# Entry
Amino acid sequence: MALGKSIANIFTGKLQKLFGKLFSGNNRPTLSADGDGCFWYKNNSNDTYFLFRKGASDYRAAQLNVTSFSSSSSSVSSSSSSSSSSTSSSFSCSYDMFDISANLLAHYKMNDNLANKIVVDTTGNHNGESLRNTSLMSAAGKIGTSLTFNATTDKIDTGSNFIGVSALTISAWIYPTGYGENNKGAIVNNIKLRLWIDPTNDAIYFTSNGNLVQLKVENVIPLTTWTKVDVTRDAAGAGEIYINSVLEGSGGTGTPTSESTSNVIIGNANSGARTFDGRIDDVRIYGTVLTGNVIRAIYNQGEGTENESGCASSSFSSSFSSSSSSSF
# Structure
C-alpha cells in the first residue's frame, strides 16, 4: 500500500499538468488504486473520473464521464471517455464502477460539534443521540473531526434497531487509546450483533448472535493509531473482517438473531458497560455485503473519504495507436 502511495505522489504532478485547471483549488480529486496498480481520481465537483497507469518509461491517462451506475451488476451502464497521454493518442480501459451509497442504511460522519446531543445520519433515517453535547465529544478525526468516547459512560443511541438479520457491512475508522470499559470497547452493538476490541493479542471480535459464535482476528488493533475496520456478514452469518482494506479473517459469526430490546448503539453496549475508549469516525452501516473493491475504494489509500459514491477498478486493458510499447 505504501508503494502505491509513493507512485501516486510521484505522478500527481504530471497529471496536474496533463489536466490543467481541473486539479486547482477545490477541484483537487480524491485518489484510490486497485490491486493491479491502476490509479483513479475523482473530481469532487462533478461525477468525472480520471484513470491512469504508469508504464516503464511513460504514463497514460483517460477521462471517464460517468452517466449512470448499475448497482446490481457493479458496472458502468453508460459512460464516455476521452484520452491524453505522454506518447500515445488513444486509450481504453476496462473497469467496474460502484455506487457505494447503494444499500446505505446509515452514515455517521461524526463531524457533530454543537451544544446539543444530535449525531447526524446523512441518510436522514437514524439520527443518533449522545449522552453529552457533541461539542464536548468532538476531536480531531481521520477525516475532518470525530467523536471521542470516555471509556465510562459515553454512547450514541441511534433510536432504533435497524440492522435486523439480513446481510450487512459495518465500516468505521477507530483510534483507540485503550481497550474500553471492561476491556471490551464496543464499536457497534445491539446486544445480538456485537463488534468490539479486546486487549488479548490486540484483537477485534464480531458476532451476530450475542457472543455465542465469534469471528476474531488478532494483532490488528494498535492503540493511538487510526485503523479502518470493515466487517461483513451474509444472511446465514458467514462473516469477513477487513483491517485497512485487507481481508484478515473470515468464518462464521453465528446465525443472525433478531433483537427487540436494544437499539443500535455506537461506542457502547445498550447496558452501558462496554464504552469505547478513544475516537470513532465515519461510521457506515450497509444492508449488503460490500466487496473488497468497494471497501478499498472507501479506504481511499489510507486517507479515508466521506463520499458516498466512487469507483474501483477490477480490471485494466489498454490500446494505443502509436508504435511505442504499450506494455506495463
Notes: The chain is about 10% helix and 40% strand. The two ends are 19 Å apart (CA to CA).
